Structure formats: C-alpha cells, structure tokens
Amino acid sequence: MTAQQPAAGAQPDGAMDEQSAARNVRQMFNSIAPRYDLLNHLLSANIDRLWWWRAARTFRTVLVQPNAIVLDLCCGTGDMTMALLRRRPLQAQPILAADFAHEMLRRGAAKFSGRGAIAIEADALRLPLRDASVDLITTAFGFRNLANYSQGLQEFARVLRPGGQLGILDFSEPNGALGKAYQWYFRCAVPAIGKAVYGQSGPYEYLPESVRRFPAPQQFVAQIESAGFEDARWTPYTLGIAGLYSAKRRGTTPADCAQINAAGKFEPGSLA
Known about the structure:
Helix content is about 45%, strand content about 20%. With about 270 residues, it is of the alpha/beta class.
C-alpha cells in the first residue's frame, strides 16, 4: 500500500480548485459562526482553552515586548487572540487579528474590541502587510483550512522579520488505542453532535476529514523548514490530539526574495 501523499491544501466538499476551496471554506465558517464557540467548547470539553493558554505561554518572551508586532491569523471568534492579549503589557502595540470569514471576525472583534487588538478582514495567503514587518505569527486551528499550505508558509515567511517566530496550533491524529477511540469520536460522534446543535452535519464531517488529510507532524515540520524557517518542532498537547508547531524565520536570502510576491503595504507601527 502506498503512503498517503500530503495534501496541498484544504479540500471541502464541492471544491474543484484552490479558489473554490477557499470560497467554500469561507462560506462554511460564515454559516457556523453563530454557534461556533458553543460547539468548540462542547466538543473539546473545554480543553481547547488550555491549548490556547499553552500556545500563548510558549511565545511569552515576544508578547511581553511592547513594540513587538503580533499577528493572529485565522483568528476566528478571537479566543487565541484573547489568550495572547493576556500576556501583552499595557500600552503595547495592538495585536493584528485577521480572518477572511466576515461573520467569524465580527464575533471575534466583539470580544477583543478596546482590549488591544485590531480586526483585519484579510486572506492568509495574501496578507496586506509589508515584507519583514511582523515579530510573531500565530494561528490556531485555522492553517489546516488554507487552500494551499506551501503558499501559506511562504506568505508567513515573507511578512516575518528574520528571527521572527511562528506558532501553528492544530489538531493531529494520535496513534494506538487512543487514536482509534479518537477517530471514532471525531468521525462519528462529532458530526452527530454538530447536527444536533447546529442543524446540519456537513461542517463537522469536514473537520475530521481535514485533520485526516493534513500532513503528519514529521512531514509538516519538514515543510515548515523548507519554506524558510529553522528550529521547527512539534509539541503534542493532550496525548497528541492537538499540538503546536513552532519555528523561527531564517535570515532573508536572495532565494527567499525571489519567492516574495507583490503585496499591498500596511504599516503596523502606524497603529500605535
């Protein structure tokens, strides 16, 4: 049997190419936004709160620097953004909280508005940020939904300063007996609960399938390093149900510059 090849990006039902994949993901998250938080906390038994806290703690040395530019991508309803804000000093540069699903971002902005974060409706594959302008990028349970994983990592490398840090928190599939039990819960119970609470199972059938198709931790660590990062590693959370990928941006090289795409200019420092 041949090994499963890593997915190029998210493939929701009905997607024929990257453009339609991105469009379907956006529509799906806009549709589930009203009950997104309720279902997340219910399905994870509130363990997701611990995961956000641990991820934010990992980057505390950056977060305590008041002038550090922090970008929380695919911020959704803002729970990761709030975890980061709890470690920011008063009068610090505001956290940039970005998502391309308007209804998700609107609910996130309601949480962090006036608390030191700014909502930006933007696509993670085409960020409205200057090259080498960000000190830390985090994304929690959102990277897996990008239409092109390699392009996403290259875009992150473009906007991060050399030495800037990256944190990608997402689900994984544990091995052994726990893995079998988890797979049953994820593929059978989660869609049923989603249908009972939300009224349809489609988005919660997509969730386990997207985790199944995502590169294994070792593969994804290698993919991160090939995109211009170093010291990439995976830290499992809760017996490997989820985990944090962390890495540092390598210094910019001519080869890196050749990969940088033109992008709109945005001056984070002007937000102070």
